[in-house]
Design brief:
Shape: elongated
Strand content: 5-15%
Strand order of the largest sheet: 3-4-5-2-1-8-9
Structural class: alpha+beta
Number of strands: 9
Radius of gyration: 28 Å
Distance between the termini: 80 Å
Largest sheet: 7 strands, mixed
Number of helices: 21
Helix content: 40-55%
Length: 398
């Protein structure tokens, strides 16, 4: 294992704490990622200093979670979370400890963490502290709980979904005892908020192994949101082909669930998981589009764009591409770049032009839509002169 060297803004925090005789180390996901050769997105520091002592040393800080021992320190323009070594009390709600006790022992702090790969620390001197053999589990490729997995999941039920998230992210299997505990403790997810479950599902969807959601469902972790378990996972495999964008991956995930009758309504499913309105609308409309075959010509694509809008049709094109292994996105891109009209705001005339030609009331909107029908079929007719002539002659009187 190569030496783990945090950036200077993290070293500065460690140095300041050590200079005042407080033990300090980097810990958790940043250590795991560094061992894996992945650039850590965030660097977390654990220390023997109490929150008040940390705030005294770093006046330019944010008391983000003092109750749980966390202070966000600003260093060289960057932010570092500094958390006091702690021991957790009981977890009555299966999510948050009822009480947190600050301790001076790093090993005790590591004992409360979820998985062995996240229970590794490196001191400012470079000494690795790994009491639960997390490094061995990283190199062997294994997701394993710290201590008794059943107890870990009773403390925080979200850890069951996190196990699958790490498994899908790193391609590591879940250790047998940990996996068995997930099956046993799965009903505890009913204590979790929909937002927490949604966030973990989305993180899994955005990995290179989203098909692990088949096992997530099979273990019963989504029983509060779906009608039955998936009968197969081949549809989920296709999600990995898509760009790592939440909208398209949620859409194809919903389509797989819908096709296997795991959900009855996309809007209801996504709303129950507290997805945002745009995602709910686009995914629901996208699944309606995907029930039929892809368009065969430009006119059919433009008709879809007219009815559903660009976001939804781009999403459907991506999903069709994954399903049929064809580049429908490129076809759609060419149509978009062509400048051909598929919406009212792209028409060469507008409502004011029709008012000047003698139209009023409802007939303005009706005429604009009739003209749009024409230019979708015949894009060359989308000129002011032609459309005004069509509006003022045969079409108006037909």
């Amino acid at each position: 294992m190569s030496e783990i060297s945090p950036p200077k803004y993290v070293k500065a925090v460690l140095k300041t704490l050590n200079a005042h005789e407080y033990p300090a180390c980097i810990v958790g996901g940043c250590v795991r990622d560094a061992i894996l050769g992945v650039e850590p997105q965030d660097w977390d520091v654990a220390t023997g200093a109490l929150p008040a002592q940390v705030m005294e040393l770093f006046p330019d800080c944010i008391p983000t979670g003092v109750k749980h021992g966390t202070v966000t320190v600003r260093s060289f323009g960057q932010f570092v979370e500094v958390t006091t070594f702690r021991s957790d009390g009981e977890y009555a709600d299966h999510r948050h400890p009822d009480k947190v006790s600050f301790v001076g022992d790093l090993t005790a702090d590591l004992s409360r963490r979820d998985f062995t790969i996240n229970a590794i620390a490196v001191t400012s001197e470079g000494t690795v502290v790994d009491p639960y053999h997390g490094i061995d589990d990283i190199f062997s490729g294994m997701i394993k709980c710290v201590g008794d997995p059943g107890k870990r999941f009773e403390e925080d039920a979200l850890r069951m979904l996190r196990a699958f998230r790490f498994s899908s992210r790193f391609g590591f299997p879940i250790e047998e005892k940990t996996f068995c505990a997930i099956r046993e403790k799965a009903p505890l997810v009913f204590s979790l908020s929909a937002e927490r479950i949604r966030d973990e599902l989305e993180k899994i969807l955005l990995t290179s192994n989203p098909e692990i959601l088949y096992t997530v469902i099979d273990c019963g972790l989504l029983d509060g949101y779906i009608d039955k378990h998936l009968s197969r996972d081949d549809g989920l495999i296709r999600i990995a082909v898509l760009n790592k964008k939440p909208l398209v991956r949620w859409a194809l995930f919903c389509m797989v669930l819908l096709a296997d009758e795991c959900i009855a309504d996309v809007r209801d499913f996504l709303t129950s998981l507290r997805l945002d309105g745009r995602t709910v609308r686009c995914c629901s409309d996208c699944c309606d589009i995907l029930k039929v075959n892809p368009p065969e010509n430009n006119v059919e694509w433009k008709q879809l764009l007219r009815k559903y809008g660009v976001d939804t049709v781009e999403c459907a094109a991506s999903c069709w591409g994954a399903i049929y292994e064809q580049n429908f996105q490129e076809i759609l891109k060419r149509i978009m770049k062509s400048g051909e009209c598929f919406s009212l705001h792209r028409l060469a005339i507008n409502g004011n032009d029709l008012i000047s030609s003698g139209f009023d009331g409802k007939e303005i909107g009706e005429m604009l839509n009739r003209l749009l029908d024409i230019v979708i079929e015949a894009p060359e007719k989308n000129t002011r002169e032609i459309l005004l002539k069509l509006a003022s002659t045969g079409i108006k009187n037909s």
